[in-house]
Design goal:
Length: 319
Amino acid sequence: IYGSNLPPDPDPGLGRWSAGDFRRALLHGQSRDGRLLYPAFPYNHTTRMTADDVDALYAHLRSLPPVVQPPREHGLRFPFNTQAALALWRILYFTPGTYQPDAARSAEWNRGAYLVTGVAHCAACHAERDVFGGGAVDRFGGGLMPDGRWWAPSLHDPAEGGTQGWSVEATAALLGRGRATQATGQASTLGPMAEVVLHGTQHLPEADLRAMAVYLAGLPVQPVRRPDFEPAPDAVLTRGGRLYEQHCAQCHGDAGEGAPGAYPPLAGHRAVTQSSPVNAVQAILSGGFAPATAAHPRPYGMPPYRSQLNDDDVAAVTS
């Protein structure tokens, strides 16, 4: 699926779209001509937005310089390329309706819920998905992302990506600056979440970052079931130790203690110990780069080792 042109060019863009057309897309998942939109566009989240916020987004897009960029044809097989399949998916998973505040909760919590489940559509990555790609907008059990390259950790499990037990200030700092220090040590964003911070959350006002932090801290705690991995043989661990000493210890420390303000600790770090090793492997292969933010314009990065380590090396040092 390829993204469409959003600047206001009359033909491939939004130039002929009215505010009402735009509302129908975000709130009801339908294009200007009535076609059902693919849920790669997260209208099951944006349907929760207020009309005023949708209109503000429309006004912003209309202010951009027009770009003549014809859309690419989607490459979907039958039946996924049919309106009938989309109609069935919507029956199963799409419930239109603006976010309704919970009167039993604070205004700050409700603001955070609106941002997390609607505007920021966090569950688009962090939701557990079934075989048809469906997931709830307010459930964040995590799983392998659609590209298969990164693991979105569960936000219900403090041993994965949950921030229950963190201070509001630490969670807000992670969302706004890309890194934070909290009771269990130093944390930083990586991979797709670093892109979220770079292009999105770092631009939010502090009050919205705090509201999101309050909502995330209140998510119910539900530990993820851990796979029963076979213990790595001693020979593999010895090999991994040598590779760590050669390639990793200079930055992350001989005992994985990290360097405050620069390189995160690895000893006991939940990015390494979480239920899936996908992100640790991906960081070794492709490198790790925190987002450049106003608070940290030149963050430390990690080089990729894809060309230096073979598969057995990567498995050993990850173990």
